[in-house]
Fold this protein.
Amino acid sequence: MQPDMCASDNYQIDLSVLEDGVHHREFHLDDAYFDRIGSDMLKGGSVDVALDVYRTGKTFKLDFHSNGEVTMTCDICLDDMQQPIDTDGSVIVRFGQEAATADDDSIVMGEGDTSLDLSWLMYEQIALAVPIRHVHAPGACNAAMAQKLEELTTPSARGGEATGEAAVDPRWEKLKGLKIKD
Protein backbone atom coordinates (compact mmCIF):
# COMPACT_ATOMS: atom_id res chain seq x y z
CA MET A 1 0.00 0.00 0.00
CA GLN A 2 1.20 3.50 -0.80
CA PRO A 3 0.30 5.77 2.13
CA ASP A 4 -0.34 9.47 1.67
CA MET A 5 -0.19 9.29 -2.14
CA CYS A 6 -3.16 11.62 -2.36
CA ALA A 7 -3.38 12.85 1.19
CA SER A 8 -6.60 14.76 1.54
CA ASP A 9 -9.17 14.95 4.29
CA ASN A 10 -11.74 14.07 1.63
CA TYR A 11 -10.39 10.51 1.44
CA GLN A 12 -9.73 9.91 5.15
CA ILE A 13 -11.98 7.79 7.32
CA ASP A 14 -11.64 7.74 11.11
CA LEU A 15 -12.28 4.10 11.94
CA SER A 16 -12.08 4.60 15.70
CA VAL A 17 -15.29 6.65 15.83
CA LEU A 18 -17.41 4.16 13.87
CA GLU A 19 -19.88 2.10 15.90
CA ASP A 20 -20.34 -1.62 15.20
CA GLY A 21 -22.54 -2.05 12.13
CA VAL A 22 -22.63 -0.74 8.56
CA HIS A 23 -21.49 2.75 7.52
CA HIS A 24 -21.88 4.11 3.99
CA ARG A 25 -19.68 6.74 2.30
CA GLU A 26 -19.59 8.05 -1.26
CA PHE A 27 -16.72 9.65 -3.15
CA HIS A 28 -16.41 11.26 -6.56
CA LEU A 29 -12.97 10.90 -8.12
CA ASP A 30 -12.19 13.45 -10.84
CA ASP A 31 -9.20 14.54 -12.91
CA ALA A 32 -7.71 16.38 -9.91
CA TYR A 33 -7.75 13.15 -7.86
CA PHE A 34 -5.94 11.17 -10.58
CA ASP A 35 -3.47 14.02 -11.01
CA ARG A 36 -2.64 13.99 -7.27
CA ILE A 37 -2.17 10.21 -7.35
CA GLY A 38 0.44 10.75 -10.09
CA SER A 39 -0.37 7.66 -12.14
CA ASP A 40 1.23 7.15 -15.53
CA MET A 41 -1.52 4.73 -16.55
CA LEU A 42 -4.66 6.60 -15.46
CA LYS A 43 -4.48 10.23 -16.60
CA GLY A 44 -7.88 11.33 -15.38
CA GLY A 45 -11.47 10.31 -15.14
CA SER A 46 -14.82 10.58 -13.47
CA VAL A 47 -15.51 7.68 -11.12
CA ASP A 48 -18.10 7.39 -8.37
CA VAL A 49 -17.08 5.14 -5.48
CA ALA A 50 -19.59 3.78 -2.99
CA LEU A 51 -18.01 2.42 0.20
CA ASP A 52 -19.69 0.28 2.82
CA VAL A 53 -17.71 -0.18 6.04
CA TYR A 54 -18.81 -3.12 8.18
CA ARG A 55 -17.39 -2.88 11.72
CA THR A 56 -17.26 -5.81 14.10
CA GLY A 57 -15.10 -5.06 17.15
CA LYS A 58 -11.60 -4.20 15.92
CA THR A 59 -12.21 -5.59 12.42
CA PHE A 60 -13.52 -3.59 9.47
CA LYS A 61 -14.60 -4.93 6.09
CA LEU A 62 -14.46 -2.24 3.40
CA ASP A 63 -16.57 -3.01 0.31
CA PHE A 64 -15.90 -0.70 -2.64
CA HIS A 65 -18.09 -0.31 -5.74
CA SER A 66 -16.57 1.94 -8.43
CA ASN A 67 -18.45 3.07 -11.52
CA GLY A 68 -17.49 5.61 -14.18
CA GLU A 69 -14.70 6.03 -16.71
CA VAL A 70 -10.99 6.77 -16.71
CA THR A 71 -8.76 8.43 -19.29
CA MET A 72 -5.78 6.47 -20.52
CA THR A 73 -3.53 6.15 -23.59
CA CYS A 74 -4.61 3.88 -26.45
CA ASP A 75 -1.96 1.19 -27.09
CA ILE A 76 -2.45 1.47 -30.86
CA CYS A 77 -2.71 5.16 -31.76
CA LEU A 78 -1.36 6.71 -28.51
CA ASP A 79 -4.32 9.13 -28.27
CA ASP A 80 -6.28 9.47 -25.04
CA MET A 81 -9.27 7.18 -24.72
CA GLN A 82 -12.06 6.65 -22.20
CA GLN A 83 -12.21 3.27 -20.45
CA PRO A 84 -15.45 2.37 -18.66
CA ILE A 85 -15.04 1.14 -15.07
CA ASP A 86 -17.53 -0.94 -13.11
CA THR A 87 -15.90 -2.96 -10.35
CA ASP A 88 -16.28 -4.24 -6.82
CA GLY A 89 -13.56 -5.01 -4.28
CA SER A 90 -13.04 -5.63 -0.59
CA VAL A 91 -10.33 -5.02 1.98
CA ILE A 92 -10.18 -6.19 5.60
CA VAL A 93 -8.69 -3.75 8.13
CA ARG A 94 -7.74 -4.73 11.68
CA PHE A 95 -6.09 -2.98 14.59
CA GLY A 96 -2.91 -4.65 15.80
CA GLN A 97 0.32 -4.02 17.71
CA GLU A 98 1.96 -2.24 14.78
CA ALA A 99 0.95 -1.22 11.27
CA ALA A 100 1.54 -3.73 8.47
CA THR A 101 0.14 -4.92 5.19
CA ALA A 102 -0.73 -8.57 5.74
CA ASP A 103 -1.55 -9.29 2.08
CA ASP A 104 -3.32 -7.70 -0.88
CA ASP A 105 -6.72 -7.92 0.80
CA SER A 106 -5.81 -7.20 4.42
CA ILE A 107 -4.30 -4.26 6.32
CA VAL A 108 -3.23 -4.12 9.96
CA MET A 109 -3.31 -0.64 11.50
CA GLY A 110 -1.34 0.21 14.64
CA GLU A 111 -3.37 0.63 17.81
CA GLY A 112 -2.52 4.36 17.87
CA ASP A 113 -3.63 4.89 14.27
CA THR A 114 -7.25 5.86 13.91
CA SER A 115 -7.52 7.36 10.44
CA LEU A 116 -7.24 5.39 7.20
CA ASP A 117 -6.36 7.12 3.91
CA LEU A 118 -8.63 5.56 1.27
CA SER A 119 -7.11 7.36 -1.74
CA TRP A 120 -4.65 4.62 -2.68
CA LEU A 121 -7.10 1.81 -1.92
CA MET A 122 -9.66 3.34 -4.28
CA TYR A 123 -7.00 3.83 -6.96
CA GLU A 124 -5.92 0.19 -6.71
CA GLN A 125 -9.51 -1.03 -7.06
CA ILE A 126 -9.93 1.01 -10.24
CA ALA A 127 -6.51 0.19 -11.72
CA LEU A 128 -7.11 -3.54 -11.26
CA ALA A 129 -10.35 -3.25 -13.24
CA VAL A 130 -8.61 -1.81 -16.32
CA PRO A 131 -8.05 -4.37 -19.10
CA ILE A 132 -4.45 -5.25 -19.91
CA ARG A 133 -4.89 -4.05 -23.49
CA HIS A 134 -6.03 -0.42 -23.82
CA VAL A 135 -7.58 0.20 -27.24
CA HIS A 136 -10.26 2.39 -28.73
CA ALA A 137 -13.44 0.84 -30.06
CA PRO A 138 -12.99 -0.45 -33.64
CA GLY A 139 -12.67 2.50 -36.03
CA ALA A 140 -12.19 5.09 -33.25
CA CYS A 141 -8.37 5.22 -33.30
CA ASN A 142 -6.53 8.21 -34.74
CA ALA A 143 -6.74 7.47 -38.49
CA ALA A 144 -3.35 9.00 -39.36
CA MET A 145 -1.56 7.05 -36.62
CA ALA A 146 -3.36 3.80 -37.53
CA GLN A 147 -2.32 4.27 -41.18
CA LYS A 148 1.31 4.86 -40.18
CA LEU A 149 1.24 1.76 -37.97
CA GLU A 150 -0.17 -0.27 -40.85
CA GLU A 151 2.61 0.96 -43.14
CA LEU A 152 5.29 0.05 -40.63
CA THR A 153 3.90 -3.43 -39.99
CA THR A 154 3.54 -4.54 -43.61
CA PRO A 155 5.70 -7.50 -44.68
CA SER A 156 7.93 -5.29 -46.86
CA ALA A 157 8.67 -2.98 -43.92
CA ARG A 158 9.73 -5.99 -41.82
CA GLY A 159 12.02 -7.31 -44.57
CA GLY A 160 9.61 -10.04 -45.62
CA GLU A 161 8.24 -10.86 -49.02
CA ALA A 162 4.98 -9.57 -50.43
CA THR A 163 3.40 -12.97 -49.70
CA GLY A 164 3.60 -12.21 -45.98
CA GLU A 165 6.44 -14.64 -45.19
CA ALA A 166 9.46 -13.10 -43.56
CA ALA A 167 12.83 -13.67 -45.20
CA VAL A 168 14.83 -16.32 -43.34
CA ASP A 169 18.26 -15.29 -42.16
CA PRO A 170 20.77 -17.77 -43.68
CA ARG A 171 22.55 -18.10 -40.32
CA TRP A 172 19.42 -19.72 -38.85
CA GLU A 173 19.34 -22.21 -41.70
CA LYS A 174 22.92 -23.29 -40.89
CA LEU A 175 22.04 -23.64 -37.20
CA LYS A 176 19.15 -25.94 -38.06
CA GLY A 177 21.73 -28.38 -39.45
CA LEU A 178 23.37 -28.61 -35.99
CA LYS A 179 20.27 -30.15 -34.36
CA ILE A 180 20.76 -33.64 -32.98
CA LYS A 181 19.06 -36.10 -35.27
CA ASP A 182 17.43 -39.23 -33.88
